[in-house]
Amino acid sequence: MNLSKTVNKSSLFRPRWLSAMLLLAAAPLAAWGQSAPANSTAPTPASYQGSVAAGPATAETISLTLDDAVQRGLRNNLGILLSSTQTANARGERLQELQSLLPAVDGSINEALMQNDLAAQGLRIPHFPTIIGPFGYTDLRVNLSWTLVDLTSLRGYLASRHNFRATELSAEDARQMVILTVGNAYLLVLADQAAVESAQAQVDTAKVSLDQAVASHQAGTAPRLDELRARVDFQSQQQQLIVATNQLAKDRLALARVIGLPLDQKFELADQAPYAAFDQPEIPAEIEKALANRKDRAAAAEQTAAATEQRKAATDERLPTLKATADYGDIGVNVLTSHGTGNAAGTITIPIFKEAQFRGDAKIAQAQLDNARDQQANLDAQIEADIRNALLDIAASQKQVEVARSNVELAREELSEAQQRYAAGVSDNLAGSEAQQSLALANGQYISSLYRHNVAKLNLARSLGVAQNFKEYLGGK
């Protein structure tokens, strides 16, 4: 087993697919049911990897449990904050649509002072003044405007109510995404810590083998080749330790970013990587549970209802509208000599020929409705696929954990026996070098499979819409 193969196996300490999986897991499925406008405040997958720091760093070292990390994420994660902003924006849009159904009342105070030149206007009357004024008046008035019958505006308001409810549900779903993202980041740091500890143990073991090879060579009982081989193994393990330590530092920063800790805040993880066997549930029952619990699915249903109202609104554009206007006030030379005046009018507007606009609006609304329905159907299928994939990953990773744990024990026995044979002088240290690399490989596989097992459980909880019960899933069912 050459050096290049040994270095390549260090990638087992931090599988490269984890970053891509984390990004995909953070994608809010509720957003698949709608196309966000250019000025949308909806969170993106990358939003869940950021946060707003809760405050400055302190001198103390924080002891951070998984539950503490999740609670911090639910307060400070950027995805949560953007979801709240999106909900506030939808609430404002709903109020705007409501105003189109309510009367608009304005008050005005008009104070006028005028002077006219009749000659400039072409009026020249003998023995009549050419300049009239100055004169003025005061007008205090209240104006009312109310569209009494407008089904298009009514449909628009109903659609805005559904959109507002959809954003509320999406905000609840964002909490599920934050729990998944924070749990993933926390478990990744735990895996990195285990990888560093394993790499350090391998370095210590390689140092013992190197010292033994040097002593044997100096005593003349072993060739120079044994010392060179042991030194290469030792330096290879040092390289793996450097890589693992660097990855741990980067993933600790990523965890701090997700939960809103200042990047220079010192913290340590209080929990250990959990492991508990998981009993496979009945898939149909789990799918039914997910369809009832998933907030993004409920949000997609609200978006479909909003698109339905918009489609009806496009049809109602052909109907007449009834609008009432009125004003009442006092007008006179001044307030003391003013008199009450008022006007009232009702207007019925009947569309006669706007066929191109009507048909265009109807086609656009129908396309948006078809899109919402297709996205909702796709989401139902995606939920089922998420559950099945998570259960497959749990079953596979659980077997991998059990096999990897056995491999670690066997590799340790192999290394111990090889070291004893070399110390007794009955073999060279090639067997010990290979046994040490096998142990490093077995440790890496165990750490990786344990991480995948726990992340698969988190993914299942999120797929079922019950990520808030992550402790129950990580602890087994």
What does this structure look like?
By secondary structure, this protein is an alpha+beta fold. The chain has 2 domains: 3-101 and 153-317 and 354-474, Outer membrane efflux proteins (OEP) (Up-down Bundle), CATH 1.20.1600.10; 105-149 and 319-353, Outer membrane efflux proteins (OEP). It is built from 11 helices and 6 strands. The chain has helices at 3-8, 17-25, 66-76, 78-99, 151-219, 224-259, 283-293, 295-316, 355-424, 430-463, 470-474; strands at 62-64, 104-117, 131-149, 267-269, 321-332, 339-349. The strands form 2 sheets. A 4-stranded antiparallel β-sheet has the order 2-3-5-6, with no helix packed on it. Strands 1-4 form a two-stranded parallel sheet. β5 and β6 (339-349) form a beta hairpin. α5 packs antiparallel against α10 and α9 packs antiparallel against α10 (430-463). The longest helix is centred in the C-terminal third of the chain and has 70 residues, at 355-424. The model is unreliable at 1-39 (pLDDT under 50).
Keywords:
single chain; Outer membrane efflux proteins (OEP); alpha+beta; 11 helices; 477 residues; 4-stranded antiparallel beta sheet; 6 strands
Element layout with pairings:
Layout: H1 3-8, H2 17-25, E1 62-64, H3 66-76, H4 78-99, E2 104-117, E3 131-149, H5 151-219, H6 224-259, E4 267-269, H7 283-293, H8 295-316, E5 321-332, E6 339-349, H9 355-424, H10 430-463, H11 470-474
Parallel strand pairs: 1-4
Antiparallel strand pairs: 2-3, 3-5, 5-6
